[in-house]
Amino acid sequence: MEIFSARNVNKVFADTKALTNVSISVNEQSIFGLLGPNGAGKTTLIRIINQITAPDSGEVFLSGRKMTRADIGQIGYLPEERGLYKKMKIGDQAIYLAQLKGMSRHDAIKNLKVWFEKFEIMAWWNKNIEELSKGMQQKVQFITTIVHKPRLLIFDEPFSGFDPINANLLKQEILQLRDNGATIIFSTHNMGSVEELCDHIALINKSVKIEDGPTDEIREKYKSNIFEVKYKGDFAMVNNALSQQIKVLSHIENSRENQITVQHVNGKSNNDLIKSLIPVAEILSFEEKIPSMNDVFIKAVGESNKR
Amino acid sequence: MNKTLIILKNEYLKRVKKKSFIILTLLVPFLFAGMFALIIFLSINNDNKERTIAVFDESALFNNEFKEEGFTKYEFIAKDKYDKLRNNLKGSEFYALLYIPQDIYSNNTAQLVSENQVPMELNDQIQRKLSRFIENDKRQKIINETQIPDLEKRLADTKTWVTLKTLKISESGEAQKSSSAIAFIASYAMGFIIYFFVFMYGAMVMRGVMEEKKSRIIEVIISSVKPYELMAGKIIGTALVGLTQVAIWIVLGFVVLVGVQGFFSPESAQQMGQSIMESQQQMNPAMAQATEPNKVLEVMEMIGNLNIPLILFCFVFYFLVGYLLYSSLLGAVGAAVDNDEDSQQMVFPVTFPLILSIMVLFPISRNPEGPVAFWFSIIPLTSPVAMMARIPYGIPTWELLLSMFLLVLMTVGAIAAAAKIYRIGLLMYGKKVNLKELIKWLRYKN
Fold first, then answer.
1. Is A299 among the domain residues?
2. Are residues A151 and A275 in the same domain?
3. Do the strands A152-156 and A75-78 form a parallel or antiparallel pair, or are they unpaired?
4. Pairwise CB contact (< 8 Å): B220 & A86
5. Which residues of A fall below an 8 Å CB-CB distance to B?
6. Do A174 and A36 fall within a single domain?
7. CA torsion angle B103 B105 B108 B112 (round to 10)
8. How far is A199 from chain B (nearest CA, A)?
9. What are the tens digits of pLDDT across the range A96-114?
10. Residues A31 and A160 in one domain
11. Structure confidence at residue A113 (pLDDT)
């Protein structure tokens, strides 16, 4: 079920195009990856969703209704460039920010305490932000983003500033938020986390959306018939047997097992490949190589830049 | 509106709870009280030195008639003693030597010799004594010459009548004069207070905006509230801080004043009152002769002659609107720049009219009807300070209304422009902002 959509959004700053006819659709209780190189227009789109800036044309919808200013209470936004008041007690500013999102003071304190306990930072409640490490600050920032139980969460590079342990904690929290009913728009350059978390991605380059779809499908789409075969036997014989019908990309020779990476060039099936292998080597594993999101990103952006 | 209220409350509490605010707010009245106490103390203890003045009366007119006054005694001496003292004053028991020459009647000149600078008061006292005496003597002579038996009484009656009449004129004239002194003080003080508050609290708004931008919390905030709600909350919250400060100062000032008066006991207060009265009388003997001595009441009356409700209303009006004008402009500056050097550069052109108006404050207070006063009090950016300096003197209604109207008009325009710059500037980083750039922002639609 679609919870959020942007339709034909355009935005021009002075003489640079930030967004050109961008449409996205985000399903409820999913994690949507908004990807793209620096300056592609992601932040502009996010700001439009947050009603910080208005599009020149096009519209954004939440739960099927055109979004208005009143809807921002249902959004939690963690910007890429973020900070907190330096000279204000952490507890106080968390309450303040929650109140600005429309919570009552009483509810804000109640919910904040739960989260502070969970993240083990309750002892910092009365401290100034200056006294905290960067990681601690990020935790506080994360809590202030989600404390009002928003239906739509927007995280822009949420993992920056976290060590691997806390990054993992955060990942678990994000997944749990989704499982509890929230929808997440997630913008990052960390392609590993995209593979792990995102159900669906959209790729923006130079203000234009160039790719959009479920993560698996996109990766599938960018696969280029590359297979990885592990075997026991002589590489020269294997190479000889395969090179007639297939392109050998690389090979690794070990004492226990050898590995070869090949790419189909003409319409041969996997079975044909295996058939020609059987006489010359013992096959240990046969696996199609799905491109990583990193590969997809580089390839898609590279192709779009060429156009 | 609700969110503006939350921001307002947060801004207010944040600033009011600050140590520097509490210290400054509490300290200032005590500083003033200390100064006030010092002045009272000095004025009471100023002239209680016992002095004896030797009088050599060559004219032989005064016949030992000089009475002791305050702490000053007079002793008449003979010529030989005078000659001796003239060169030997230092070692003697006398503070000064008064020489009344033979021809004082025609020349109206006497001489006072002393080793130190004679206090003004003493100088006045002696002048007054001599003048009064000669006056009386001349009158007496006429009485004697004319031989009209009850002439003195008739003269006195005439004088009483004349004095009453002059008193009336002189009193109103004098009241006018005194109240114009009071008006001058009120004018200068109020112009200055407005300048001080508008500048201080306007800068406070700007720093607050810059802090939000610099710490990057701004993007979170404006994803929760509209920029104008944020700006309104900030500006109003800060204004309330200013009003709180003034209120505390008024209350504390009152308490301290009562305390100081208590400290110096009623008698000393009375003494001070008397010494003020005396000095006033000395300055203006004609008036002193006839006026009843309740001078304090008269000063109160003079203050009462000022249009207090109008002044208060205008003060609040010009303070609030002037503050609104400058704080929104400075808030926009705070949003447009992202480092301190740039802000310095932008603040100057914005606050220049304010600085200009404090520079012409003195000339305006002295000549509230002049063209400088007129134009500065009509032009919106300088009118909060300049008009406030003119109001205690009284001002044509149309000028006041025109000034107010233009100020409000300007402020509304400034807020609209500032809101636009504010909204665009808040998320603009790493761009060197100048006036040209700001004008470009103003042209952006939406």
1. no
2. no
3. parallel
4. no
5. 47, 50-52, 54, 69, 72-73, 75, 77, 79, 81-86, 88, 96-97, 99-101, 144-145
6. yes
7. 60
8. 26
9. 999 999 899 999 999 999 9
10. yes
11. 94
Task: Provide CB contacts within 8 A for B128, sequence distance 6+.
Answer: B282, B285
Compare all CA atoms of chain A with the CA of B5 and give the residue at the minimum distance: A100
Mean predicted confidence (pLDDT) in A44-58: 90
pLDDT in tens, A261-287: 888 766 677 788 888 888 888 888 888
Facing residue for A83 by CB, picked from B10, B217, B224: B217
Closest chain B residue to A71, measured at CA: B224
The residues near B92 (Cβ < 8 Å, ≥ 6 apart) are B54, B85
Q: Which two tokens stand for residue A227?
A: 């297979």
| Facing residue for A82 by CB, picked from B216, B224, B446 | B216
Question: Considering only CA atoms, which of A13, A20, A5, A8 is closest in space to residue A58?
Answer: A8
Total of domains in chain A: 2
How much is the pLDDT for B302? Answer: 58
Tell me, what's the ipTM? 0.80
Q: Is there a domain that residue A306 lies in? A: no
Of residues A262 and A117, the one with the higher pLDDT is: A117
Closest chain A residue to B14, measured at CA: A88
DSSP lists the bridge partners of residue A231 as: A258, A283
Could you tell me if B222 and B426 are in contact, meaning their C-beta atoms sit under 8 angstroms apart?
Answer: yes
Which residues in chain B show pLDDT less than 70? 1, 36, 40-49, 61, 64-65, 68-70, 89, 116-120, 149, 151-182, 256-257, 260-306, 445-446
- A31 and A99 share one domain: yes
B287 or A158: which leads in pLDDT: A158
Q: How many interface pairs between A and B have CB atoms less than 8 angstroms apart? A: 54
Cross-chain residue pair A97–B220, CB shorter than 8 Å: yes
**Do the domain assignments include residue A62?**
yes
Domain containing residue A192: 2-220
Mean pLDDT, chain A, integer: 88
Amino acid in position B230: L
**pLDDT tens per residue across span B20-39:** 889 988 887 778 777 767 77
Same-domain pairing of A256 and A172: no
Q: Which residues in B have their CB inside 8 Å of a CB on A?
A: 3, 6-7, 10, 14, 211-212, 215-217, 219-226, 427, 429, 446
Where a domain ends, among A180, A195, A220? A220
State residue B343's pLDDT score.
Answer: 81
Residue spans per domain, chain B: 2-41+189-266+293-443, 51-147
CATH number, domain of A182, equals 3.40.50.300
Residue A293 included in any domain: no
Kindly state the average pLDDT of the residues A129-133.
85
Of B6, B7, B219, nearest to A79 by CB-CB distance is B219
Chain A residues inside the 8 Å CB shell of B7: 100
Give this prediction's pTM.
0.71
Judge if A202 and A244 occupy the same domain.
Answer: no
Among partner residues B220, B224, B225, which is closest to A82 by beta-carbon distance?
B220
Between chains, do B217 and A51 touch, taking CB under 8 Å as contact? Answer: no
Q: Which CATH homologous superfamily contains domain B51-147?
A: Periplasmic binding protein-like II (3.40.190.10)
User: Based on the domain organization, do A271 and A142 belong to the same domain?
Assistant: no
The Cα–Cα gap between A260 and A244 comes to 15
Quote the tokens at residue B158.
């005439």
CA-based angle A165:A167:A168, to the nearest 5? 65
